[in-house]
Amino acid sequence: MGEVKKVVLAYSGGLDTSVILKWLQETYHCEVVTFTADIGQGEEVGIARTKAEALGVKEIYIEDLREEYARDYVFPMFRANAIYEGEYLLGTSIARPLIAKRLVDIARETGADAISHGATGKGNDQVRFELGAYALMPDVKVIAPWREWDLNSRQKLLDYAEKNGIAVEMKQGKKSPYSMDANLLHISYEGGILEDPWAEPEDDMWRWTVSPEMAPDKPVYIELEFAGGDIVSINGNKMTAATVMETLNTLGGQNGIGRDDIVENRYVGMKSRGCYETPAGTIMLKAHRAMESLTLDREVAHLKDELMPRYASLIYNGYWWSPERKMLQTMIDESQETVNGKVHLKLYKGNVTVVGRMSVTNSLFDSEIATFEDDAGAYDQADAAGFIKLNALRMRIAERLKQQSK
After folding, report:
1. What CATH code is carried by the domain that includes residue 50?
2. Residue 372 domain flag
């Protein structure tokens, strides 16, 4: 263990990673560099500096990565309409590649020979962090304390903190029984009563959204403008990627949009029940599919839908930096050149409804052909007879053989 001279720790300043910081110093006798990322979790990250300094850390990185996260990770993923197992909008999954990248970048900048994280040995995040790190820095050493130590309960962590003079903020009032993770895309809840898949989540668990029953009785209409598959303005106001997400989180949350209760298949093999609030993501997915419905060629759209589950699984399982994900991204991004225009949405009591879509430059909708009224010869309906017979040929042959065999 003494071979590690310097390690970069993904550090939140909370109980787990504060204990990890001290444990690394004691166990590996190494210098620890801390890295704290603000990716829109809505918590004060500055306290991490004070706590790291109190534990003797000399090199402290605290970075606002909200814009990079939204622009370079979330938006590219939504160009693919990625959704895992038909439900999960990948809020935790897509944050991990960015954190892994910065851990590796900082390791290079500081001359560290190892990185460390606070993910447990049961979950997906250990895989995501480490696959990303190895893809970007093949020879990096990874230290995962939860796979090494015996501090496997909250009480043991508290006892260790007390023994080593580590400050622990004890929140006043009722402590949340849930394990939560938040960023610009979502907030997740696991543990507590959610470990019973039959138990309904408590109303006071949800943090970002009002219940659909308590949402306003009057719908809210919004207009989203797309350029190259990305939302660039809301109601005519140009916005950066992060600001788009912050605005849609607020609007969606106020209207009860984005709650989900899922049992998913973790990459490590077990099933896990979690609840999620993803207001912006729910709106973005609905709007993007509406924009594509008007501007994408049929076969391109269908091919994207066929490849999407594979793309989503790659992100869920931690393969953002893999050559296959990059290859798929190139294809997806190429398809988005025509995804330009506006989508009109109605937000009402947990629902997102598309009420209009338009594209001045790239619409493939031809009203003269699609009309039920007189199309003035734009489409010869008699042509359909031969088209149908040709497509029915194989089925007609099979049925004739079936009847002859009788």
Report:
1. 3.40.50.620
2. no
Q: Residue 20: which domain range?
A: 6-76+90-163
Q: Which residues contact 368 (CB under 8 A, 6 or more apart)?
A: 375, 376, 378
Residues with catalytic function: 16, 96, 125, 179
Q: CB-based contacts of 101: which residues, under 8 Å, 6+ apart?
A: 132, 136, 321
Structure tokens of 102?
């910065």
Number of domains in the chain: 2
Does any domain span residue 170? no
pLDDT digits (tens), the chain, 406 positions: 558 999 999 999 888 999 999 999 999 999 999 999 999 998 888 889 999 999 999 999 999 999 999 999 999 999 999 999 999 999 999 999 999 999 999 999 999 999 999 999 988 999 999 999 999 999 999 999 999 999 988 889 989 999 999 887 654 455 667 888 999 999 999 999 999 999 999 999 999 999 999 999 999 999 999 999 999 999 999 999 999 999 999 999 999 999 999 999 999 999 999 999 999 999 999 999 999 999 999 999 999 999 999 999 999 999 999 999 999 999 999 999 999 999 999 999 999 999 999 999 999 998 877 777 776 677 788 899 999 999 999 999 999 999 999 8
Judgement on whether residues 198 and 145 belong to the same structural domain of the protein: no
Q: pTM for this structure?
A: 0.93
Give the span between the Cα atoms of 269 and 289, in whole angstroms.
31
- 206 and 275 assigned to the same domain: yes
